Structures
1.
Amino acid sequence: MNLQEALTRCSTLVIESADGIGRSDLITELAEHGFLIRCDADRLHHVDPTRPYRELFAEPGRLVLSGSIIHELVYGPLLRGESRVSWIQALDFAESVAERDGALIHLTAPRHPPRIAPTAFSEATDAYTRVFRSLSQHVPVVTLDAGDLDRPSPAHGPAHREVAGNKTKLTVG
């Protein structure tokens, strides 16, 4: 699945990337395509991290959110030596996204890491690759190079990139 297919077929998109790779511009642009932004990405329920997502997924409409469960799977072990999210909870989350006709969007680093990349950037990007490979067995995953989002489409000038056929353009500048 690519981003164009995800925009057409999905009602839920979860955007995630290593720290230092911006997600907010893509999330904002997806909101302009009818996706509602719904989630405080930094808050995990202390007993059941998937609970806020189950509540969100019960709402109608198209949703875009940042995947703090995935973030915790990667950064918990890197920063604290353990994750507050179990693999069972992460797989439950992935299956819930899939059941809501959703996909995970994995933003990867451009050819050159961001200038303000954390010290664990290389370890985090490797961990994200492993996590998304595992989750892709339960939910569609779209991998996008963040550098490609900054490159203009030749036919649409410096601020536009075509993502959903000829009618819809996603502004990414």
2.
Amino acid sequence: MKVAEFGKVAVLFGGTSAEREVSLKSGQAVLNALKSQGVDAYAFDTASQPLTELVNQHFDRVLIMLHGRGGEDGTLQGALQQLAIPYTGSGVLGSALSMDKVRSKWIWQALNLPTAEYQVIDKSSFNAEHCADIMVRLGGIVMVKPANEGSSIGMTKVSDAGQLSAAIEQAFQYDHQVLVERFIVGQEFTVSLLGERALPSIRMQTPRTFYDYEAKYQASSTEYFCPSGLDVETESGLAELARRAFTAVNGSGWGRIDFMQDQAGQFYLLEANTVPGMTEKSLVPMAAKQAGMSFAELTLEILATSEVSR
């Protein structure tokens, strides 16, 4: 698709979610790249501009760079469909399912895709007296995650019942439903998806307790390996698992699937991301670069996903 055919493009970023700061950085980087390629692109912060302005200002399509709730959970996608404005990435269902760690895990489990043992905790029925039993059943070390947050926000690694109770209460500050998952000792990988293609996998390594918000966006001690060091057969198998997992939650256009590999070499699905970060430290641009694609070329490929009929 020629650049001129994209028309007037709004890059949606900022917003009001807990990931606003990351979204601002992602959106500005993407906006600059699109402009450098001659795209008629404009900044659009949904925290200060109503979506109806997209119609009033005659935008032809939007590139979504809103991370977290209100941008990645299907609500924005539904609004854009009602406004008949083409948008990038997954549709309503794929966005909603991918954002929800509990329901995406249920789908993967139903399809016999590998995912760690877990328990779902609802705020209305949580009883701290059950924490000891949960720790025993899930192997003694667990990750606590709000069901609907990204960028590791609200996540905690715990190793005893007292810590678990406190971590669950902290996660309830972000969501009424919490996922408690067996902690997998091993290495963390991610696979980015662009259309039908899986980009080279990346292995992340951090001296921190786990690959948390600081390790992702702030620390200089995080190491990234791309190529990740997997042999050709394992790399191919991981790419196929990423595609299957993304398709299972109705993901489309572009996205990222995160994994843990245990010490026996088994991969486990962690989560799906339908609007991954696009900052200077982000993983999708890193994988694209390894595949021979510049950041500017990647942004055009992402923008082109707005042509998908829904």
3.
Amino acid sequence: MDHGNETHQMLGCHPSEFIKFVIEERPKILWRHLVKEDGYIDDDDNYNKEFAEGVLLRRERFMGDDESGKQIVKEAREIYYGENTFSVESHCLRVFLIRDTRADGKPMAVEPFVSGLLLCADSRHIKHG
């Protein structure tokens, strides 16, 4: 599936044009598609179509692997992980910290970007001795 129309619609233009916007304007546009203001982000948000489309902005596969695409992905990841608070079950923390991927499909550590994390203990995964 070609996601060019979706990314074009979110950015308001092609990525090569978006990168030419004044540096102070780009975060405002990205923020609208990447930040959830009303609570925590959890796994259910991956199924919320309106919010989940923002993932396209965080992946080189969709934004392009040229310098413009890489810069937009970098800025999008910084906003997404830095401006949201994530609700993560304790047994899923390891997976969460490597849930994003590089253009080559290899896992990417998101820990340096994350500023808000709510760690939830799930009693179903606690071993009782």
